[in-house]
């Protein structure tokens, strides 16, 4: 029987500026380098296929712009892009040329003017892949569900001011593989991972721009989520210092690939932009882990329903 694999390149990039056109050119160059074997290979136990493009390149959250959600003082809505738009056109052309899929975080504006913190998936033919919700709906991007409004290591973050939340967890199909997604803060909510698994996800993308004290538990949290959902986790985080609105914030990187039993297969250095991980993941390992530790069988549906009922009551 032929092994089911997915060859993945994770591009850890940051240090973006207010020159949006230049940012996009940098992203295109970084993806092209990853697709043609450039960049560093911090690949851990399972390196990518030498001499060929990866099946999928993954980029961090909101990576077509600097991370701008630390201020209300400047209107950044002109940075938002439609889907399709300039970013999907440029990266779609590259995906088609290099015959590799690309997932990237972007500032999305819908036809009615609503803005979202989103992840777009483009297939190897350069086409935008639909994300399907549990109710049968579809979207051109995964849209972040939980929007933080908090202080992290002295940095004020308010995404509720800039974005509308997405409707629900969602999954997409790529190379016959069901893929789920979380964006940054979403990773902290186990129920989002559980729904994606229930929808058939074998791989979860964690697309991140994270900073400060969240570094201390970043890898451990993703290892735990991988073990709970028994999915492969492919995490791309922004890295390095970035100056906007007169303030400099240092994003901690640590992009990684984690197996469905929680093993860290590959990790990038902390706080360093311009790193690429190249890993071939074994999708058969998902079934093996689930058979050895049947968490889905032993999950108490009545307790899950009780939690939902109690949470609904509290929210009222």
Brief account:
With 316 residues, the protein is an alpha+beta fold. 25% of the residues lie in helices and 29% in strands. It has a single domain, classed as Carbon-nitrogen hydrolase (Nitrilase/N-carbamoyl-D-aminoacid amidohydrolase, 4-Layer Sandwich), CATH 3.60.110.
Q: Tell me the name of the CATH class.
A: Alpha Beta
Strand order of the largest sheet: 7-4-3-2-1-18
Q: Which residues form runs of ≥5 with pLDDT under 50?
A: 39-45
Helical content (DSSP H or I, runs of 4+): 10-25%
Number of strands: 18
The appropriate CATH architecture is: 4-Layer Sandwich
CATH fold-type name: Nitrilase/N-carbamoyl-D-aminoacid amidohydrolase
Which value, in Å, is the CA radius of gyration? Answer: 18 Å
CATH superfamily: Carbon-nitrogen hydrolase
The chain-level structural class is alpha+beta
Structural domain count: 1
Report mean pLDDT, rounded to a whole number: 94
Instruction: Please write the string of helix (H) and strand (E) elements.
Output: EHEHEEEEEEEEEHEHEEEEEEHHH
Estimated share of beta-strand residues: 25-35%
How large is the count of helical segments?
7
The largest sheet is:
6 strands, mixed
Dominant shape: globular
In whole angstroms, the N-to-C terminal distance is 53 Å
């Amino acid at each position: 029987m032929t092994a089911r694999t997915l060859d993945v390149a994770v591009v850890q990039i940051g240090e973006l500026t207010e020159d949006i056109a230049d940012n996009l050119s940098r992203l295109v160059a970084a993806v092209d380098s990853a697709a043609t074997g450039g960049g560093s290979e911090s690949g851990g136990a399972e390196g990518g296929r030498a001499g060929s493009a990866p099946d999928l390149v993954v980029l961090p959250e909101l990576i077509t712009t600097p991370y701008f959600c630390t201020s209300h003082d400047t209107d950044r809505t002109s940075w938002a892009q439609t889907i399709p738009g300039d970013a999907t056109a440029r990266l779609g052309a590259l995906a088609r040329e290099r015959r590799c899929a690309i997932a990237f975080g972007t500032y999305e504006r819908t036809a009615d003017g609503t803005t979202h913190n989103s992840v777009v998936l483009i297939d190897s033919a350069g086409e935008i892949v639909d994300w399907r919700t549990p109710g049968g709906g579809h979207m051109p991007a995964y849209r972040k569900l939980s929007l933080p409004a908090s202080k992290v290591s002295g940095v004020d973050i308010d995404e509720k001011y800039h974005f509308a939340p997405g409707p629900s967890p969602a999954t997409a199909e790529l190379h016959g593989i069901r893929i789920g997604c979380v964006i940054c803060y979403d990773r902290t909510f186990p129920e989002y991972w559980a729904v994606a698994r229930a929808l058939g996800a074998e791989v979860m993308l964690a697309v991140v721009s994270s900073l400060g004290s969240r570094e201390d538990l970043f890898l451990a949290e993703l290892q735990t989520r991988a073990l709970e959902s028994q999915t492969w986790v492919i995490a791309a985080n922004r890295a390095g210092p970035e100056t906007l609105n007169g303030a400099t914030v240092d994003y901690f990187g640590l992009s990684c690939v984690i197996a469905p039993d929680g093993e860290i297969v590959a990790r990038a250095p902390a706080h360093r932009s311009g790193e690429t991980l190249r890993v071939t993941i074994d999708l058969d390992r998902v079934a093996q882990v689930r058979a050895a530790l049947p968490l889905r069988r032993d999950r108490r549906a009545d307790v899950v329903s009780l939690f939902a009922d109690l949470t609904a009551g509290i929210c009222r």
